[in-house]
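re: that complex we talked abt at group meeting.

here r the seqs, copy pasted straight from the sheet so there may be weird spacing, ignore it
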Amino acid sequence: MLFKSLLSIERFLQILIYSALTILSPHLAYATQMHSAAEGVIVHQIGHLFFLISMIILYFTIRGKSLDSQQGWRLIQLSALLFSLWNLDALIVHFLDNQIDMIYLTNISIFEAQIDSVNNSKPLILFYYFLRLDHLLSLPAMILLWRGLSLILKQNLANQELIK
Amino acid sequence: MILPYLPILVVDIAGSFGMIVFALLALNNAIKLKKRDTDNVMSLYLLWICWGFTIFAISRALGHLVRQLMVIYGHSDWWSFISPYSGTINTVSFMLMGVLTLFFNQNWKINMKILESQKTLETTNQALEETHIELVKLNQTLEQKVAERTAIIMKNINEKKNMAQQIAQADKLAALGELAAGVAHEINNPLGIILGYTQLMLKDKSMENSDFYEDLKVIEKHVKNCKSVVSDMLTFSRKGSLKQGIVNLNHVVDDVVKFLHNHSDFRNIEMKLDLYHEGICDIGACNVLGNEQELRQVVINLLINSCHAVEKNGKINLKTLLTDVEKDSSQEEIRCRDAEIWVEDNGKGIKLENLPRIFDPFFTTKPVGQGTGLGLSVSYGIVKKHGGRIEVKSKENEGSLFRVILPCASNIIAEELMEKS
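got the structure back, here u go
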Protein backbone atom coordinates (compact mmCIF):
# COMPACT_ATOMS: atom_id res chain seq x y z
CA MET A 1 0.00 0.00 0.00
CA LEU A 2 2.79 2.32 1.06
CA PHE A 3 4.81 1.26 -1.93
CA LYS A 4 1.91 1.97 -4.23
CA SER A 5 1.37 5.42 -2.77
CA LEU A 6 5.15 6.19 -3.04
CA LEU A 7 5.09 4.99 -6.63
CA SER A 8 2.18 7.23 -7.46
CA ILE A 9 3.97 10.22 -5.84
CA GLU A 10 7.12 9.44 -7.79
CA ARG A 11 5.14 9.08 -11.01
CA PHE A 12 3.43 12.36 -10.36
CA LEU A 13 6.79 14.13 -9.80
CA GLN A 14 8.19 12.64 -13.02
CA ILE A 15 5.25 13.87 -15.07
CA LEU A 16 5.63 17.26 -13.45
CA ILE A 17 9.39 17.51 -14.26
CA TYR A 18 9.00 16.29 -17.88
CA SER A 19 6.15 18.68 -18.46
CA ALA A 20 8.22 21.57 -17.09
CA LEU A 21 11.25 20.65 -19.25
CA THR A 22 9.10 20.33 -22.39
CA ILE A 23 7.57 23.73 -21.84
CA LEU A 24 10.85 25.45 -20.82
CA SER A 25 13.18 23.99 -23.61
CA PRO A 26 11.46 23.82 -27.03
CA HIS A 27 13.18 21.94 -29.98
CA LEU A 28 12.29 20.82 -33.53
CA ALA A 29 9.96 17.82 -33.44
CA TYR A 30 10.54 14.67 -35.68
CA ALA A 31 7.71 12.40 -36.71
CA THR A 32 10.03 9.35 -36.58
CA GLN A 33 13.25 8.86 -34.63
CA MET A 34 16.46 7.95 -36.48
CA HIS A 35 18.23 4.71 -35.40
CA SER A 36 21.96 4.25 -35.54
CA ALA A 37 23.72 1.01 -36.63
CA ALA A 38 25.09 0.51 -33.12
CA GLU A 39 21.52 0.08 -31.86
CA GLY A 40 21.31 -3.36 -33.53
CA VAL A 41 24.43 -4.57 -31.67
CA ILE A 42 23.12 -3.29 -28.37
CA VAL A 43 19.74 -4.96 -28.92
CA HIS A 44 21.56 -8.20 -29.77
CA GLN A 45 23.70 -7.85 -26.66
CA ILE A 46 20.60 -7.21 -24.53
CA GLY A 47 19.10 -10.34 -26.07
CA HIS A 48 22.18 -12.36 -24.99
CA LEU A 49 22.06 -10.79 -21.53
CA PHE A 50 18.35 -11.61 -21.18
CA PHE A 51 19.03 -15.17 -22.32
CA LEU A 52 21.95 -15.41 -19.89
CA ILE A 53 19.88 -14.18 -16.94
CA SER A 54 16.96 -16.45 -17.77
CA MET A 55 19.30 -19.47 -17.94
CA ILE A 56 20.79 -18.59 -14.54
CA ILE A 57 17.26 -18.23 -13.13
CA LEU A 58 16.35 -21.61 -14.62
CA TYR A 59 19.45 -23.16 -13.04
CA PHE A 60 18.56 -21.87 -9.57
CA THR A 61 14.85 -22.56 -9.94
CA ILE A 62 15.57 -26.22 -10.69
CA ARG A 63 17.78 -26.27 -7.62
CA GLY A 64 15.17 -24.47 -5.51
CA LYS A 65 12.46 -26.95 -6.44
CA SER A 66 14.84 -29.84 -5.61
CA LEU A 67 14.29 -31.14 -9.12
CA ASP A 68 18.01 -31.76 -9.45
CA SER A 69 17.50 -34.93 -7.41
CA GLN A 70 16.16 -36.43 -10.66
CA GLN A 71 18.81 -37.19 -13.24
CA GLY A 72 16.82 -35.77 -16.18
CA TRP A 73 16.30 -32.41 -14.54
CA ARG A 74 19.92 -32.39 -13.33
CA LEU A 75 21.08 -32.64 -16.96
CA ILE A 76 18.70 -29.81 -17.98
CA GLN A 77 20.17 -27.77 -15.11
CA LEU A 78 23.70 -28.39 -16.45
CA SER A 79 22.46 -27.48 -19.91
CA ALA A 80 21.18 -24.15 -18.53
CA LEU A 81 24.58 -23.55 -16.94
CA LEU A 82 26.41 -24.21 -20.22
CA PHE A 83 23.98 -21.97 -22.12
CA SER A 84 24.69 -19.23 -19.55
CA LEU A 85 28.42 -19.60 -20.17
CA TRP A 86 27.84 -19.60 -23.91
CA ASN A 87 25.85 -16.36 -23.63
CA LEU A 88 28.67 -14.84 -21.60
CA ASP A 89 31.11 -15.98 -24.25
CA ALA A 90 28.99 -14.47 -27.04
CA LEU A 91 28.51 -11.25 -25.07
CA ILE A 92 32.29 -10.81 -24.72
CA VAL A 93 32.98 -11.64 -28.40
CA HIS A 94 30.33 -9.18 -29.60
CA PHE A 95 31.61 -6.59 -27.14
CA LEU A 96 35.14 -6.91 -28.40
CA ASP A 97 34.60 -7.04 -32.16
CA ASN A 98 31.25 -5.29 -32.69
CA GLN A 99 30.68 -2.94 -29.83
CA ILE A 100 34.03 -1.36 -29.00
CA ASP A 101 35.84 -2.54 -32.18
CA MET A 102 38.86 -3.67 -30.21
CA ILE A 103 39.52 -6.84 -32.24
CA TYR A 104 39.61 -7.25 -36.00
CA LEU A 105 39.44 -10.58 -37.80
CA THR A 106 40.40 -10.88 -41.46
CA ASN A 107 40.20 -14.17 -43.37
CA ILE A 108 43.37 -14.90 -45.33
CA SER A 109 42.21 -18.36 -46.42
CA ILE A 110 40.14 -21.15 -44.95
CA PHE A 111 43.26 -22.20 -43.07
CA GLU A 112 44.47 -18.88 -41.74
CA ALA A 113 43.07 -15.66 -40.31
CA GLN A 114 44.61 -12.40 -39.32
CA ILE A 115 43.48 -11.28 -35.86
CA ASP A 116 44.55 -7.88 -34.55
CA SER A 117 43.77 -5.89 -31.51
CA VAL A 118 43.84 -2.14 -31.04
CA ASN A 119 46.40 -2.34 -28.22
CA ASN A 120 48.27 -5.29 -29.84
CA SER A 121 47.64 -7.41 -26.76
CA LYS A 122 48.58 -10.99 -27.56
CA PRO A 123 46.70 -12.50 -24.58
CA LEU A 124 43.57 -10.59 -25.59
CA ILE A 125 43.88 -11.94 -29.17
CA LEU A 126 44.32 -15.50 -27.90
CA PHE A 127 41.45 -15.05 -25.46
CA TYR A 128 39.28 -13.82 -28.35
CA TYR A 129 40.42 -16.75 -30.55
CA PHE A 130 39.27 -19.29 -27.96
CA LEU A 131 36.03 -17.41 -27.36
CA ARG A 132 35.27 -17.80 -31.08
CA LEU A 133 35.06 -21.55 -30.54
CA ASP A 134 31.70 -20.93 -28.78
CA HIS A 135 30.05 -24.09 -30.17
CA LEU A 136 32.19 -26.02 -27.73
CA LEU A 137 29.80 -24.66 -25.11
CA SER A 138 26.48 -24.46 -27.00
CA LEU A 139 26.59 -27.96 -28.56
CA PRO A 140 27.18 -29.83 -25.24
CA ALA A 141 24.44 -27.67 -23.74
CA MET A 142 22.02 -28.78 -26.46
CA ILE A 143 23.11 -32.45 -26.10
CA LEU A 144 22.50 -32.25 -22.32
CA LEU A 145 19.03 -30.78 -22.94
CA TRP A 146 18.16 -33.65 -25.31
CA ARG A 147 19.54 -36.26 -22.90
CA GLY A 148 17.73 -34.73 -19.93
CA LEU A 149 14.43 -34.82 -21.81
CA SER A 150 15.07 -38.44 -22.83
CA LEU A 151 15.51 -39.41 -19.17
CA ILE A 152 12.38 -37.50 -18.11
CA LEU A 153 10.43 -39.29 -20.85
CA LYS A 154 11.83 -42.64 -19.73
CA GLN A 155 10.90 -41.90 -16.10
CA ASN A 156 7.42 -40.87 -17.21
CA LEU A 157 6.99 -44.16 -19.10
CA ALA A 158 8.17 -46.14 -16.08
CA ASN A 159 5.70 -44.26 -13.81
CA GLN A 160 2.82 -44.92 -16.19
CA GLU A 161 3.71 -48.63 -16.32
CA LEU A 162 3.77 -48.67 -12.52
CA ILE A 163 0.28 -47.10 -12.35
CA LYS A 164 -1.04 -49.70 -14.82
CA MET B 1 48.62 -11.90 -35.56
CA ILE B 2 48.03 -14.85 -37.90
CA LEU B 3 46.22 -17.78 -36.35
CA PRO B 4 44.76 -21.01 -37.80
CA TYR B 5 41.19 -20.44 -39.01
CA LEU B 6 40.34 -24.06 -39.67
CA PRO B 7 39.52 -24.94 -36.02
CA ILE B 8 37.09 -22.01 -35.88
CA LEU B 9 35.56 -23.10 -39.20
CA VAL B 10 35.24 -26.79 -38.28
CA VAL B 11 33.81 -26.09 -34.81
CA ASP B 12 31.40 -23.55 -36.28
CA ILE B 13 30.11 -25.84 -39.08
CA ALA B 14 30.04 -29.07 -37.04
CA GLY B 15 28.63 -27.25 -34.03
CA SER B 16 25.89 -25.65 -36.14
CA PHE B 17 24.89 -29.02 -37.59
CA GLY B 18 24.99 -30.61 -34.14
CA MET B 19 22.87 -27.83 -32.69
CA ILE B 20 20.16 -28.38 -35.29
CA VAL B 21 20.21 -32.18 -34.89
CA PHE B 22 20.09 -32.22 -31.09
CA ALA B 23 17.55 -29.40 -30.94
CA LEU B 24 15.24 -31.44 -33.18
CA LEU B 25 15.87 -34.59 -31.10
CA ALA B 26 15.06 -32.69 -27.91
CA LEU B 27 11.89 -31.31 -29.55
CA ASN B 28 10.90 -34.85 -30.55
CA ASN B 29 11.30 -35.99 -26.92
CA ALA B 30 9.25 -33.03 -25.68
CA ILE B 31 6.45 -33.85 -28.17
CA LYS B 32 6.42 -37.48 -27.01
CA LEU B 33 6.33 -36.37 -23.37
CA LYS B 34 3.41 -34.04 -24.07
CA LYS B 35 1.52 -36.79 -25.87
CA ARG B 36 2.00 -39.17 -22.95
CA ASP B 37 1.10 -36.65 -20.28
CA THR B 38 -1.42 -34.33 -21.91
CA ASP B 39 -2.75 -32.86 -18.64
CA ASN B 40 0.69 -31.93 -17.25
CA VAL B 41 1.51 -28.22 -17.54
CA MET B 42 5.24 -28.94 -17.13
CA SER B 43 5.21 -31.13 -20.24
CA LEU B 44 3.63 -28.26 -22.14
CA TYR B 45 6.26 -25.90 -20.74
CA LEU B 46 9.12 -28.21 -21.77
CA LEU B 47 7.59 -28.38 -25.24
CA TRP B 48 7.56 -24.59 -25.48
CA ILE B 49 11.19 -24.45 -24.28
CA CYS B 50 12.22 -26.99 -26.91
CA TRP B 51 10.41 -25.10 -29.63
CA GLY B 52 12.30 -21.98 -28.48
CA PHE B 53 15.63 -23.81 -28.53
CA THR B 54 14.89 -25.30 -31.94
CA ILE B 55 14.03 -21.90 -33.45
CA PHE B 56 17.13 -20.45 -31.82
CA ALA B 57 19.39 -23.32 -32.98
CA ILE B 58 18.10 -23.32 -36.54
CA SER B 59 18.22 -19.54 -36.97
CA ARG B 60 21.68 -19.26 -35.48
CA ALA B 61 23.17 -22.40 -37.05
CA LEU B 62 21.82 -21.55 -40.51
CA GLY B 63 23.21 -18.04 -40.13
CA HIS B 64 26.61 -19.41 -39.23
CA LEU B 65 26.60 -22.00 -42.00
CA VAL B 66 25.60 -19.47 -44.63
CA ARG B 67 28.28 -17.07 -43.40
CA GLN B 68 31.02 -19.74 -43.47
CA LEU B 69 29.98 -20.91 -46.94
CA MET B 70 29.99 -17.38 -48.26
CA VAL B 71 33.38 -16.70 -46.71
CA ILE B 72 34.75 -19.90 -48.23
CA TYR B 73 33.37 -19.05 -51.66
CA GLY B 74 34.57 -15.42 -51.39
CA HIS B 75 31.18 -13.73 -51.13
CA SER B 76 31.74 -11.89 -47.88
CA ASP B 77 29.80 -8.91 -49.25
CA TRP B 78 26.69 -11.06 -49.59
CA TRP B 79 27.02 -11.98 -46.00
CA SER B 80 27.16 -8.29 -45.10
CA PHE B 81 23.71 -8.02 -46.66
CA ILE B 82 22.23 -11.08 -44.94
CA SER B 83 23.86 -10.73 -41.52
CA PRO B 84 21.53 -7.99 -40.12
CA TYR B 85 18.51 -10.22 -40.81
CA SER B 86 20.20 -13.30 -39.37
CA GLY B 87 21.27 -11.31 -36.30
CA THR B 88 17.76 -9.94 -35.79
CA ILE B 89 16.16 -13.40 -35.97
CA ASN B 90 18.81 -14.59 -33.55
CA THR B 91 18.05 -11.76 -31.15
CA VAL B 92 14.34 -12.48 -31.29
CA SER B 93 15.01 -16.17 -30.59
CA PHE B 94 17.14 -15.21 -27.51
CA MET B 95 14.34 -13.01 -26.25
CA LEU B 96 11.81 -15.74 -26.84
CA MET B 97 13.95 -18.26 -24.96
CA GLY B 98 14.44 -15.82 -22.11
CA VAL B 99 10.70 -15.10 -21.81
CA LEU B 100 9.79 -18.79 -21.94
CA THR B 101 12.37 -19.70 -19.32
CA LEU B 102 11.18 -16.98 -16.96
CA PHE B 103 7.71 -18.59 -17.02
CA PHE B 104 9.11 -21.72 -15.42
CA ASN B 105 8.18 -20.74 -11.88
CA GLN B 106 4.61 -19.77 -12.79
CA ASN B 107 4.19 -22.97 -14.72
CA TRP B 108 5.52 -24.94 -11.84
CA LYS B 109 3.06 -23.32 -9.42
CA ILE B 110 0.15 -23.93 -11.81
CA ASN B 111 1.24 -27.52 -12.22
CA MET B 112 1.46 -28.03 -8.47
CA LYS B 113 -2.03 -26.58 -8.03
CA ILE B 114 -3.39 -28.82 -10.77
CA LEU B 115 -1.72 -31.86 -9.21
CA GLU B 116 -3.10 -30.90 -5.80
CA SER B 117 -6.60 -30.46 -7.25
CA GLN B 118 -6.22 -33.77 -9.06
CA LYS B 119 -5.25 -35.44 -5.79
CA THR B 120 -8.21 -33.85 -3.98
CA LEU B 121 -10.45 -34.97 -6.82
CA GLU B 122 -9.09 -38.51 -6.64
CA THR B 123 -9.62 -38.57 -2.86
CA THR B 124 -13.16 -37.25 -3.33
CA ASN B 125 -13.76 -39.81 -6.06
CA GLN B 126 -12.51 -42.57 -3.81
CA ALA B 127 -14.71 -41.36 -0.97
CA LEU B 128 -17.64 -41.21 -3.39
CA GLU B 129 -16.92 -44.73 -4.57
CA GLU B 130 -16.75 -45.97 -0.98
CA THR B 131 -20.03 -44.21 -0.22
CA HIS B 132 -21.54 -45.76 -3.33
CA ILE B 133 -20.44 -49.25 -2.23
CA GLU B 134 -21.85 -48.60 1.24
CA LEU B 135 -25.13 -47.41 -0.28
CA VAL B 136 -25.32 -50.51 -2.45
CA LYS B 137 -24.72 -52.67 0.61
CA LEU B 138 -27.35 -50.75 2.57
CA ASN B 139 -29.74 -51.13 -0.32
CA GLN B 140 -29.13 -54.86 -0.41
CA THR B 141 -29.66 -55.11 3.37
CA LEU B 142 -32.78 -53.00 2.99
CA GLU B 143 -34.12 -55.30 0.30
CA GLN B 144 -33.38 -58.28 2.52
CA LYS B 145 -35.07 -56.59 5.48
CA VAL B 146 -38.08 -55.68 3.37
CA ALA B 147 -38.29 -59.30 2.17
CA GLU B 148 -38.07 -60.58 5.76
CA ARG B 149 -40.68 -58.11 7.00
CA THR B 150 -42.93 -58.92 4.07
CA ALA B 151 -42.64 -62.62 4.88
CA ILE B 152 -43.55 -61.91 8.53
CA ILE B 153 -46.49 -59.72 7.48
CA MET B 154 -47.69 -62.39 5.03
CA LYS B 155 -47.41 -65.00 7.76
CA ASN B 156 -49.41 -62.79 10.13
CA ILE B 157 -52.05 -62.18 7.48
CA ASN B 158 -52.32 -65.92 6.81
CA GLU B 159 -52.55 -66.66 10.52
CA LYS B 160 -55.27 -64.04 10.89
CA LYS B 161 -57.10 -65.46 7.91
CA ASN B 162 -56.87 -68.98 9.37
CA MET B 163 -58.00 -67.70 12.72
CA ALA B 164 -60.97 -65.94 11.14
CA GLN B 165 -61.84 -69.15 9.29
CA GLN B 166 -61.58 -71.14 12.50
CA ILE B 167 -63.77 -68.63 14.34
CA ALA B 168 -66.33 -68.83 11.54
CA GLN B 169 -66.16 -72.63 11.69
CA ALA B 170 -66.55 -72.59 15.46
CA ASP B 171 -69.56 -70.27 15.20
CA LYS B 172 -71.11 -72.49 12.58
CA LEU B 173 -70.51 -75.59 14.66
CA ALA B 174 -71.86 -73.92 17.78
CA ALA B 175 -75.06 -73.00 15.93
CA LEU B 176 -75.36 -76.49 14.49
CA GLY B 177 -74.66 -77.95 17.93
CA GLU B 178 -77.48 -76.05 19.47
CA LEU B 179 -79.81 -77.02 16.65
CA ALA B 180 -78.71 -80.66 16.89
CA ALA B 181 -79.24 -80.64 20.66
CA GLY B 182 -82.83 -79.38 20.20
CA VAL B 183 -83.61 -81.89 17.46
CA ALA B 184 -81.93 -84.75 19.31
CA HIS B 185 -83.82 -83.97 22.46
CA GLU B 186 -87.16 -83.97 20.58
CA ILE B 187 -86.35 -87.17 18.65
CA ASN B 188 -84.79 -89.07 21.54
CA ASN B 189 -88.00 -89.54 23.49
CA PRO B 190 -90.13 -90.86 20.57
CA LEU B 191 -87.24 -93.10 19.59
CA GLY B 192 -87.10 -94.46 23.16
CA ILE B 193 -90.78 -95.21 23.03
CA ILE B 194 -90.50 -96.89 19.59
CA LEU B 195 -87.52 -98.97 20.74
CA GLY B 196 -89.25 -99.88 24.01
CA TYR B 197 -92.43 -101.05 22.31
CA THR B 198 -90.47 -102.92 19.61
CA GLN B 199 -88.40 -104.73 22.20
CA LEU B 200 -91.57 -105.52 24.18
CA MET B 201 -93.12 -107.00 21.08
CA LEU B 202 -89.98 -109.00 20.38
CA LYS B 203 -90.05 -110.41 23.92
CA ASP B 204 -93.56 -111.76 23.25
CA LYS B 205 -93.11 -115.53 22.55
CA SER B 206 -96.06 -115.59 20.20
CA MET B 207 -94.30 -113.14 17.90
CA GLU B 208 -91.28 -115.36 17.36
CA ASN B 209 -93.01 -117.40 14.71
CA SER B 210 -94.94 -114.47 13.36
CA ASP B 211 -94.32 -112.88 9.95
CA PHE B 212 -93.61 -109.58 11.67
CA TYR B 213 -90.73 -110.89 13.80
CA GLU B 214 -88.04 -110.11 11.21
CA ASP B 215 -89.61 -106.72 10.52
CA LEU B 216 -89.52 -105.93 14.21
CA LYS B 217 -85.83 -106.89 14.27
CA VAL B 218 -85.16 -104.48 11.38
CA ILE B 219 -87.09 -101.75 13.21
CA GLU B 220 -85.08 -102.40 16.40
CA LYS B 221 -81.79 -102.30 14.49
CA HIS B 222 -82.55 -99.01 12.77
CA VAL B 223 -84.01 -97.41 15.86
CA LYS B 224 -80.79 -98.31 17.66
CA ASN B 225 -78.86 -96.69 14.81
CA CYS B 226 -81.04 -93.61 15.13
CA LYS B 227 -80.45 -93.53 18.87
CA SER B 228 -76.73 -93.80 18.24
CA VAL B 229 -76.87 -90.83 15.89
CA VAL B 230 -78.95 -88.88 18.38
CA SER B 231 -76.55 -89.81 21.17
CA ASP B 232 -73.63 -88.56 19.06
CA MET B 233 -75.48 -85.35 18.39
CA LEU B 234 -76.14 -84.89 22.09
CA THR B 235 -72.50 -85.56 22.88
CA PHE B 236 -71.48 -83.00 20.25
CA SER B 237 -73.69 -80.37 21.84
CA ARG B 238 -73.18 -81.33 25.44
CA LYS B 239 -71.57 -78.62 27.57
CA GLY B 240 -69.54 -79.87 30.47
CA SER B 241 -72.09 -82.35 31.50
CA LEU B 242 -69.55 -85.08 32.20
CA LYS B 243 -67.08 -85.19 35.05
CA GLN B 244 -63.72 -83.48 34.46
CA GLY B 245 -60.40 -84.74 35.83
CA ILE B 246 -56.75 -85.47 35.10
CA VAL B 247 -56.43 -87.74 32.09
CA ASN B 248 -53.25 -89.49 30.99
CA LEU B 249 -53.20 -89.47 27.19
CA ASN B 250 -50.90 -92.52 27.04
CA HIS B 251 -53.47 -94.53 28.96
CA VAL B 252 -56.30 -93.28 26.73
CA VAL B 253 -54.49 -94.24 23.53
CA ASP B 254 -53.30 -97.54 24.92
CA ASP B 255 -56.84 -98.50 26.09
CA VAL B 256 -58.38 -97.61 22.74
CA VAL B 257 -55.80 -99.61 20.80
CA LYS B 258 -56.34 -102.65 23.04
CA PHE B 259 -60.10 -102.24 22.68
CA LEU B 260 -60.06 -101.94 18.87
CA HIS B 261 -57.36 -104.50 18.32
CA ASN B 262 -59.83 -107.36 18.34
CA HIS B 263 -62.41 -105.56 16.27
CA SER B 264 -62.93 -107.31 12.95
CA ASP B 265 -62.28 -104.13 10.91
CA PHE B 266 -58.83 -103.67 12.48
CA ARG B 267 -57.62 -107.25 12.24
CA ASN B 268 -55.74 -106.83 8.97
CA ILE B 269 -54.43 -103.35 9.75
CA GLU B 270 -50.92 -102.85 11.07
CA MET B 271 -51.12 -100.54 14.04
CA LYS B 272 -47.97 -99.03 15.45
CA LEU B 273 -47.94 -97.39 18.85
CA ASP B 274 -45.32 -94.84 19.87
CA LEU B 275 -45.97 -93.43 23.34
CA TYR B 276 -43.96 -90.52 24.69
CA HIS B 277 -41.54 -91.69 27.46
CA GLU B 278 -44.03 -93.88 29.15
CA GLY B 279 -42.25 -93.79 32.47
CA ILE B 280 -42.18 -90.02 32.56
CA CYS B 281 -45.80 -89.76 31.52
CA ASP B 282 -46.73 -91.94 34.47
CA ILE B 283 -45.32 -89.23 36.69
CA GLY B 284 -47.81 -86.84 35.16
CA ALA B 285 -46.15 -85.00 32.32
CA CYS B 286 -48.60 -86.34 29.71
CA ASN B 287 -51.65 -85.47 31.72
CA VAL B 288 -54.38 -83.21 30.43
CA LEU B 289 -57.43 -81.84 32.16
CA GLY B 290 -60.66 -83.28 30.79
CA ASN B 291 -63.02 -86.19 30.51
CA GLU B 292 -61.39 -89.54 29.81
CA GLN B 293 -64.45 -91.05 28.20
CA GLU B 294 -64.79 -88.16 25.76
CA LEU B 295 -61.14 -88.16 24.85
CA ARG B 296 -61.31 -91.90 24.31
CA GLN B 297 -64.22 -91.28 21.94
CA VAL B 298 -62.09 -88.77 20.00
CA VAL B 299 -59.33 -91.34 19.54
CA ILE B 300 -61.86 -94.03 18.56
CA ASN B 301 -63.46 -91.70 15.98
CA LEU B 302 -60.10 -90.84 14.46
CA LEU B 303 -59.04 -94.50 14.34
CA ILE B 304 -62.36 -95.55 12.75
CA ASN B 305 -61.89 -92.85 10.08
CA SER B 306 -58.32 -94.02 9.47
CA CYS B 307 -59.50 -97.59 9.29
CA HIS B 308 -62.04 -96.67 6.62
CA ALA B 309 -59.40 -94.66 4.76
CA VAL B 310 -56.80 -97.43 4.60
CA GLU B 311 -59.40 -100.08 3.77
CA LYS B 312 -57.54 -103.38 4.27
CA ASN B 313 -53.85 -104.16 4.89
CA GLY B 314 -53.08 -100.51 5.66
CA LYS B 315 -50.92 -98.96 8.30
CA ILE B 316 -51.94 -96.70 11.15
CA ASN B 317 -49.40 -95.01 13.42
CA LEU B 318 -50.42 -93.68 16.82
CA LYS B 319 -48.15 -91.38 18.69
CA THR B 320 -48.20 -89.21 21.80
CA LEU B 321 -45.78 -86.38 22.40
CA LEU B 322 -45.22 -83.22 24.41
CA THR B 323 -44.11 -79.78 23.23
CA ASP B 324 -41.88 -77.19 24.97
CA VAL B 325 -40.92 -79.48 27.80
CA GLU B 326 -39.39 -77.86 30.92
CA LYS B 327 -37.05 -79.80 33.14
CA ASP B 328 -36.16 -79.34 36.78
CA SER B 329 -32.68 -79.37 38.31
CA SER B 330 -32.58 -83.18 38.26
CA GLN B 331 -33.47 -83.17 34.54
CA GLU B 332 -36.97 -84.51 35.21
CA GLU B 333 -39.66 -83.30 32.87
CA ILE B 334 -42.12 -81.46 35.04
CA ARG B 335 -44.01 -79.17 32.76
CA CYS B 336 -44.91 -78.80 29.09
CA ARG B 337 -47.03 -76.54 26.93
CA ASP B 338 -49.12 -79.05 24.94
CA ALA B 339 -49.73 -82.78 24.81
CA GLU B 340 -50.47 -84.22 21.39
CA ILE B 341 -52.01 -87.36 19.92
CA TRP B 342 -51.06 -88.13 16.33
CA VAL B 343 -53.13 -90.49 14.22
CA GLU B 344 -51.45 -91.11 10.89
CA ASP B 345 -52.51 -93.44 8.11
CA ASN B 346 -51.37 -94.31 4.62
CA GLY B 347 -54.89 -94.38 3.24
CA LYS B 348 -56.52 -92.62 0.35
CA GLY B 349 -56.30 -89.20 2.02
CA ILE B 350 -58.75 -86.31 1.82
CA LYS B 351 -59.44 -84.39 -1.34
CA LEU B 352 -58.32 -80.78 -1.18
CA GLU B 353 -61.80 -79.43 -1.82
CA ASN B 354 -63.18 -81.52 1.08
CA LEU B 355 -60.62 -80.40 3.65
CA PRO B 356 -62.52 -77.25 4.82
CA ARG B 357 -65.70 -79.29 5.35
CA ILE B 358 -64.49 -82.38 7.22
CA PHE B 359 -65.56 -81.01 10.62
CA ASP B 360 -69.03 -80.05 9.40
CA PRO B 361 -71.77 -82.19 10.98
CA PHE B 362 -73.25 -84.83 8.64
CA PHE B 363 -70.48 -84.31 6.10
CA THR B 364 -69.24 -87.68 4.93
CA THR B 365 -67.60 -89.17 1.87
CA LYS B 366 -68.42 -92.74 2.98
CA PRO B 367 -71.11 -94.79 1.21
CA VAL B 368 -74.66 -94.46 2.49
CA GLY B 369 -75.22 -96.43 5.66
CA GLN B 370 -71.53 -96.60 6.61
CA GLY B 371 -71.07 -93.25 8.31
CA THR B 372 -73.19 -90.64 9.98
CA GLY B 373 -70.87 -87.71 9.22
CA LEU B 374 -70.77 -86.84 12.89
CA GLY B 375 -67.53 -88.53 14.06
CA LEU B 376 -65.18 -85.66 13.28
CA SER B 377 -67.73 -83.00 14.29
CA VAL B 378 -68.16 -84.68 17.67
CA SER B 379 -64.39 -85.05 18.08
CA TYR B 380 -63.91 -81.40 17.14
CA GLY B 381 -66.51 -80.34 19.72
CA ILE B 382 -64.87 -82.44 22.44
CA VAL B 383 -61.35 -81.22 21.74
CA LYS B 384 -62.54 -77.60 21.52
CA LYS B 385 -64.26 -78.01 24.89
CA HIS B 386 -60.94 -79.22 26.33
CA GLY B 387 -59.24 -76.01 25.15
CA GLY B 388 -57.44 -77.77 22.34
CA ARG B 389 -57.60 -78.07 18.59
CA ILE B 390 -57.37 -80.62 15.80
CA GLU B 391 -54.96 -80.02 12.91
CA VAL B 392 -55.08 -82.03 9.71
CA LYS B 393 -52.49 -82.66 7.02
CA SER B 394 -53.59 -84.79 4.13
CA LYS B 395 -52.53 -85.61 0.60
CA GLU B 396 -54.74 -87.52 -1.74
CA ASN B 397 -53.69 -91.20 -2.23
CA GLU B 398 -50.82 -90.78 0.25
CA GLY B 399 -52.52 -90.57 3.63
CA SER B 400 -53.59 -88.25 6.40
CA LEU B 401 -52.29 -87.04 9.73
CA PHE B 402 -54.66 -85.87 12.47
CA ARG B 403 -53.05 -84.02 15.37
CA VAL B 404 -55.09 -83.63 18.54
CA ILE B 405 -53.41 -80.84 20.49
CA LEU B 406 -54.44 -80.38 24.12
CA PRO B 407 -52.99 -78.10 26.79
CA CYS B 408 -50.98 -79.95 29.44
CA ALA B 409 -52.56 -80.25 32.85
CA SER B 410 -49.33 -79.08 34.49
CA ASN B 411 -49.41 -75.97 32.38
CA ILE B 412 -53.06 -75.21 33.14
CA ILE B 413 -52.56 -75.76 36.86
CA ALA B 414 -49.50 -73.56 36.89
CA GLU B 415 -51.36 -70.84 35.03
CA GLU B 416 -54.32 -71.06 37.40
CA LEU B 417 -51.96 -70.87 40.39
CA MET B 418 -50.31 -67.82 38.89
CA GLU B 419 -53.68 -66.19 38.29
CA LYS B 420 -54.70 -66.87 41.88
CA SER B 421 -51.42 -65.57 43.28
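couple things i noticed - The longest strand of chain B covers residues 315-323. The domain at 242-420 of chain B is CATH 3.30.565.10 (Heat Shock Protein 90).
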